[in-house]
Amino acid sequence: MAATVVRICLQSVLKAVNSLLGMVGIAMILYGLWMVRVWLRDIDGSPFDHHNVVLPWFTCTSLGAGFTLCMVTCIGHVAAKYAHGCCLSFYMLIIFLVILLELAVAADILLNSEWEKDLPYDPTGKFNDFKDFVESNLDIFQWIGLFIVLAQGLSIILATALRSAGPNQRSSYDGDEECPPERLPLINPNSHPPELHYRCQER
């Protein structure tokens, strides 16, 4: 009974933490869609051929990161619901890879003073606007980044604990019954097995 309660609590907390990551992904998708809308509005008034225009890389990156987080959130919810070892292991692997990617990007920004030169040119200027906005609110974004990394780390810890707890186990028969159901013989279904009937009477 206690193991079942602990498993249910772990599943609920993992779903809640996983939902926070999903909200971050949805926010990135909405921001990417807004940039797409602004970009389409800008190219409508341009004299260039619209068929040869490619979506800016910063917009694609925002949409891709948002969809990735939403996909990871869906996988996490499925893994938390069924508490299957393979699903939880796959979920932990994806979260671990995402954390490594985030740490690599953060290390490159902190250690490389000319990291902007490694990025392609953004014709829309949205990347520079986003960078200026982050720099003007650096303290807030530092806390947001720390919160995201901690949530991802907590997801790995919860998934590990849930994997150790094992999958949901269902009893093969009702525990309120004092003896298992009797099996009726094939030839004479009205007769009862004497040994099993006598055993139930003794209980």
From TrEMBL:
<keyword id="KW-1133">Transmembrane helix</keyword>
<dbReference type="InterPro" id="IPR018499">
    <property type="entry name" value="Tetraspanin/Peripherin"/>
</dbReference>
<keyword id="KW-0472">Membrane</keyword>
<feature type="transmembrane region" description="Helical">
    <location>
        <begin position="54"/>
        <end position="78"/>
    </location>
</feature>
<keyword id="KW-0812">Transmembrane</keyword>
<feature type="region of interest" description="Disordered">
    <location>
        <begin position="166"/>
        <end position="194"/>
    </location>
</feature>
<feature type="transmembrane region" description="Helical">
    <location>
        <begin position="140"/>
        <end position="162"/>
    </location>
</feature>
<protein>
    <recommendedName>
        <fullName>Tetraspanin</fullName>
    </recommendedName>
</protein>
<feature type="transmembrane region" description="Helical">
    <location>
        <begin position="90"/>
        <end position="111"/>
    </location>
</feature>
<feature type="transmembrane region" description="Helical">
    <location>
        <begin position="12"/>
        <end position="34"/>
    </location>
</feature>
<dbReference type="Pfam" id="PF00335">
    <property type="entry name" value="Tetraspanin"/>
</dbReference>
<dbReference type="GO" id="GO:0016020">
    <property type="term" value="C:membrane"/>
</dbReference>
